[in-house]
Automatic annotation (TrEMBL):
The lineage of its organism: Bacteria, Pseudomonadati, Pseudomonadota, Gammaproteobacteria, Enterobacterales. It comes from the Bacteria. InterPro entries: Gp26_C, Phage_lambda_Stf-r2. One of its GO terms (biological process) is symbiont entry into host cell. Residues 255-397 form the Phage tail protein C-terminal domain. Signal peptide: none annotated. This is Phage tail protein. It holds the Pfam family Phage_fiber_2. It comes from Photorhabdus bodei.
């Protein structure tokens, strides 16, 4: 038996005596209410229809989902309780199977799999973390393998792993000494190998051909990391010499770059600063930023002062632009914030007064209102010369160990 609903919609027939929706929305009584003794029946019917219809719909919802009679007895508390009960019943009966495709509805699992619609339980997260903690870290390159000998034996590489140089293609042998790599072969070498270049990576050994020419050889070795290095050495096959020459490192865009004056310099991490404060970084200097504070003053942040390996001299350092006579065009005053590691560089005009007139650096500062050219004074604060840069080699911040 269906529940009783006392709340009925009023004036809902097709020919009901009501104003149109447009007239209703334009009626001044919509905001102010009906004036005394002036009520239009068809407007009143419209008002009653709207309020009674929504009341009837809500009451019908309550009756349907609560199973109780909805009575017009003036008991507001009871009606509120019935509405809450109906809403709870609606939610309980119509929530679908748990899913990750509907907001607020989740199905849990404690099994590892490839589902896109399941969420993990706390236990599964804990198991995965425990599993991950027992895995090898990629950046350790095998250093964290507990039993390296057993690991190698399980791979069937017990012979390969015992020496620092692995030689061959389909079958491999290992040796201790780079000098003993067979002619015309490829290999993979480790830094600990005797007479090697001191870096991990692949290499090749070539001979001069046949007969006596076999004694004249070339060995090339390259590191395999992003900032790769290429090394080579040659073998002198002359009978009274017959020995390998030293290893040499090839300078390339991976380890060097031209400075502001065209001279090749060690590249790792370098900042090129332009007059307006814009800048370029080598890939190793990623994260470093530059700001032009004011005329002639630039701040480098995200570093720990100048490079400390001395490859650019004892100061670290900074390379300033020079003219074709090798005379620097500016002076620089450098300082490092001991707390942050930021570098501040101040640039000052360099006149080079001791040089012949034609070689002196007379730099135009401005043209005044009378059309006269104004030059920078020697030692006056100035920006980096137009079209030039200064190169600064920095020390990167140490990465935190997490």
């Amino acid at each position: 038996m269906s529940s009783k609903n006392d709340f009925k919609a009023f004036s809902i027939g097709n020919n009901a005596n009501i104003v149109s929706q447009e007239e209703y929305e334009q009626s001044p009584d919509l905001k102010t209410g009906f004036p005394p003794d002036d009520i239009t029946v068809h407007l009143l019917n419209k008002v009653l229809r709207q309020s009674s219809t929504i009341a009837s719909v809500v009451a019908n919802f309550i009756a349907t989902y609560s199973g109780n009679d909805v009575l017009d007895d003036g008991d507001i508390v009871k009606l509120s309780a019935q509405l809450n009960g109906a809403l709870e019943q609606k939610i309980a009966t119509e929530v679908p199977n748990a899913s990750l495709t509907q907001k607020g509805v989740v199905q849990l699992t404690d099994k590892i799999g490839n589902s896109n619609t399941l969420a993990v339980t706390q236990k599964l997260v804990s198991d995965v973390n425990d599993n991950a903690n027992n895995r090898l870290a990629k950046d350790q390159n095998g250093a964290d393998i507990p039993d390296k000998k057993a690991f190698v034996e399980n791979l069937g590489l017990e012979v390969i792993s015992t020496k620092p140089v692995v030689v061959g293609n389909n079958t491999a042998s290992t040796i201790d000494n780079f000098d003993n790599i067979p002619q015309n072969s490829t290999y993979f070498g480790y830094p600990v190998g005797l007479n090697g270049p001191g870096v991990y990576g692949p290499g090749m050994r070539f001979s001069g051909g046949y007969g006596a020419f076999k004694g004249y050889e070339l060995m090339i070795h390259s590191s395999y990391v992003q900032k790769s290095e290429l090394h080579y050495r040659t073998h002198n096959g002359d009978g009274n010499i017959n020995k390998w020459n030293p290893w040499y490192k090839v300078w390339s865009t991976s380890n060097a770059k031209p400075d502001t004056n065209g001279n090749l310099k060690v590249s790792s991490p370098v900042v090129d600063i332009h007059p307006d404060g814009t800048y370029q970084l080598t890939c190793e200097a990623e994260g470093v930023t530059v700001e032009r504070i004011e005329t002639g003053k630039y701040r480098i942040s995200g570093c720990s002062g100048f490079a400390k390996d001395g490859a650019w001299g004892i100061h670290g350092g900074t390379i300033v632009p020079a003219d074709s006579n090798g005379l620097n065009l500016i002076w620089v005053c450098e300082s490092v914030d001991s707390a942050s590691g930021d570098i501040t560089i101040e640039c000052y005009h360099r006149q080079n007064r001791d040089a012949p007139i034609f070689a002196q650096n007379r730099r135009v500062k401005s043209i005044n209102s009378d059309g006269e050219v104004v030059y920078y004074n020697d030692g006056e604060l100035c920006d980096i010369p137009d079209g030039r840069v200064i190169n600064v080699r920095v020390q990167l911040l140490e990465k935190s160990q997490e």
